[in-house]
Amino acid sequence: MNTKVNPSNYARRGERGFTLIEIMVVVIIIGILAVSIIPQFMSTTTDAKISAAKANIAELESAVNRFYVHMDRYPTTEEGLKVLVTAPADGDKNWRGPYISQLRDDPWNNPFQYKSPGTHHPTSFDIWSQGSANTATTEGGSTEIGNW
């Protein structure tokens, strides 16, 4: 059975492609939807990074407290958080680490900051991330995320 397709048959049955105007209308509608939806995802990403930084700080704070229990002191500012992964230079026998498997950067790929004694906790320590700004700011407009 050899049937030949006649192009005029499509026109008779009302089967034809989309016009340029119809395609442009669809593209414009998709663009409007994208412009209204994408900013919501951007704020979600920022919120997720802040939550991850807070969780990482809580984990580091717990590890520093375990270090304190074993060593009867907090790590010095000079030792920093590295002492949670590798033994201190003085080779103290009480060190029972590593207290964390690896020292990770914050969600913005910057190292977490550590200070002992802390500014916010003068009897213990401060751990913080400088956030997306990566610059220390004043108390009022701080973008820092810390254990305070």
Distance between the termini: 83 Å
* Tally of DSSP β-strands: 3
Name given to the CATH homologous superfamily of the domain at 54-146: Glycoprotein, Type 4 Pilin
- Count up the helices: 2
Range of strand content: 5-15%
Record the strand order, biggest sheet: 1-2-3
Could you list the spans in which at least 5 consecutive residues all have pLDDT below 50?
Answer: 135-141
What string, H for helix and E for strand, traces the elements in order? HHEEE
The pLDDT mean sits at 84
**Gross morphology:** elongated
Major sheet characteristics:
3 strands, antiparallel
Rg calc: 29 Å
Summarize the structure in words:
It contains 2 helices and 3 strands. With 148 residues, the protein is mainly alpha-helical. About 5% of the residues have low confidence. The protein has a domain of 93 residues: Glycoprotein, Type 4 Pilin (2-Layer Sandwich), CATH 3.30.700. It has a 3-stranded antiparallel β-sheet with strand order 1-2-3, covered by helices on one side.
